[in-house]
Amino acid sequence: MTCGPPRHGFRPGEDTGSGTVAALAIIFTLLICLSLVAVVSSVSAASVQSARAADLAALAAADAARGLRQGDPCTVAEQVTARNGAVLEACQVGGLFPTEVTVTVSREVSIGSLAQQLNLPGLRVHSSARAGPPEALP
Q1: Which H or E run includes 30?
Q2: What's the order of all strands across the beta sheet hosting 117-131?
Q3: Where are the transmembrane segments (predicted)?
Q4: SS3 of 44, please?
């Protein structure tokens, strides 16, 4: 025997509200996946930009080492690296040839958003490049 008025529309064992929970779970999972894609693509873009900065810095420094451009090779490499949004980590002039230059640069990874840039502190990509006279080819 039941007390009170009968409840219409409710059947025992019915899963009311489970569709809402499932939809929220799917939306949350998609947001996490999209966030991961954004981070991976930002790291990839920063890696390419770092490699470009290293290549250009090594070429400019090698030109300075050969006398085709004025200035100290490592100073020239640092200037070119800064213009490309990276930081010069190491610069070595010499090797098998006195005009051979090896540079290592790094760049901070940032995720672009509509309103601002979110920097991920401590997340940096590193690239190295070597340049020199044509005789220095491996």
Answers
A1: helix 18-66
A2: 87-93, 101-112, 117-131
A3: 20-43
A4: helix
Here the tokens at position 43 are 């790291």
Distance CA 55, CA 130 (A): 7
Q: What is the pTM assigned to this prediction?
A: 0.73
Q: What is the distance, to the nearest Å, from the Cα of residue 62 to the centroid of all Cα atoms in its chain? A: 27
Per-residue model confidence as pLDDT tens digits over 17-49 = 778 888 999 999 999 898 888 888 888 989 999
Q: What's the CA gap between 7 and 4, in Å, rounded?
A: 9
Phi, psi of 137 (to 5 degrees): -65, 140
What CA–CA distance (Å, rounded) separates 32 from 44?
18
Q: Which two tokens stand for residue 73?
A: 């090779």
Residue 50 — pLDDT band, cuts 50, 70, 90? very high
Tell me the C-alpha distance between 41 and 82, whole Å. Answer: 23
pLDDT of 137 > 80? The answer is no
**Cβ atoms 132, 61 nearer than 8 A:** no
